[in-house]
Specification:
Blueprint (H helix, E strand, L loop, with lengths): L1 E11 L2 H11 L4 E4 L3 E7 L2 E7 L8 E5 L5 H11 L13 E4 L5 E7 L5 E7 L17 E9 L2 H12 L2 E3 L5 E6 L2 E7 L17 E7 H11 L5 E5 L2 E6 L2 E8 L5 H4 L4
Parallel strand pairs: 1-4, 5-8, 9-12, 13-16
Antiparallel strand pairs: 1-13, 2-3, 3-4, 5-9, 6-7, 7-8, 10-11, 11-12, 14-15, 15-16
This protein binds fe (ii) ion.
């Protein structure tokens, strides 16, 4: 049903600042620009949008999946070529392995608004299925963080309505997974690693790609009763847990997770 994150829209206090960071340093092409908004192409299927707003920016958390075999190249690019400092764990590490040794690796950094970005790689992900975008070689936007009051309520909604699979289920944390999209549901009381950053709820619109218009019609039925912000032939935007959640019909294959060998 849900195949991927098609867009993540965040606020910024400087369009020029995000242009310098995402285009200038991370090498993401600009695909749209107005006096209030800028949009970057992260992969052929995913964009990142920033809207300038005269208000404090609550930092979002999001993660790019990069190829396992290229992880050290990506880190070298970030640190040496782009000159972006990686965040450190309290013990001084910049790069962490997780799950079983040799299966997953990640690192964190921040943009000019303080959004918390992550590059993450898993050994099991097939590297020949999706194109590798730009100098970060992004395969897909894997994670978007949703700080919420009630983790079990939000994960119940995502899994019950849209069949998202749940992983790492705790009282204050859960992954809800649809295709390549991992919604990181975190309690507002839980801080983001590795710098123990307060998880303020960001002002964001998260677009879930769904496989085709027939699936979008099914989503309309499944979200009946939710407050609708906009509705069109190829999209539906609702409000849920103070987040704008958008569903867009795309042509990403419904079995993308299987093709990529995701568990
Ligand atoms: Fe993360």
């Amino acid at each position: 049903m849900i195949t991927h994150f098609a867009d993540l829209a965040l606020h910024t206090v400087s369009l020029e600042g995000v242009r310098q960071f995402y285009n200038g340093l991370l090498g993401m092409p600009v695909v749209f620009e107005s006096d209030k908004e800028i949009r970057f192409q992260v992969t052929p299927f995913t964009t990142l949008t920033f809207t300038e707003a005269y208000e404090p920016v609550a930092p979002a958390h999001f993660a790019f999946e990069v190829p396992w075999s290229a992880f050290s190249d990506v880190i070298a690019y970030l640190k040496e070529t782009a000159g972006i400092p990686l965040l450190r764990w309290p013990d001084g590490r910049e790069i962490a392995e997780f799950d079983e040794p040799g299966s997953g690796i990640n690192a964190y950094f921040r943009d000019g608004d303080g959004h918390l970005l992550e590059v993450i790689a898993h050994r099991y992900v097939r590297e020949d299925v999706l194109p590798q975008g730009g100098p970060l070689k992004v395969l897909y936007l894997r994670e978007v963080g949703f700080p919420v009051e009630d983790v079990s309520e939000f994960r119940g909604w995502l899994s019950g309505r849209f069949g998202m699979k749940l992983a790492k289920v705790f009282d204050d944390f859960t992954f809800a997974i649809g295709g390549t999209a991992h919604a990181v549901i975190a309690s507002k009381q839980r801080r983001w690693i590795p710098i123990r950053m307060y998880a303020l709820p960001p002002n964001m619109t998260v677009t879930f790609g769904v496989s085709g218009r027939h699936t979008l019609e099914r989503i309309r039925e499944l979200t009946a009763g939710e407050p609708i912000l906009s509705s069109g032939e190829d999209e539906l935007t609702i409000m849920r847990n103070d987040y704008r959640i958008r569903f867009a019909a795309t042509d990403v294959p419904a079995d993308i997770a299987v093709r990529l060998n995701l568990p």
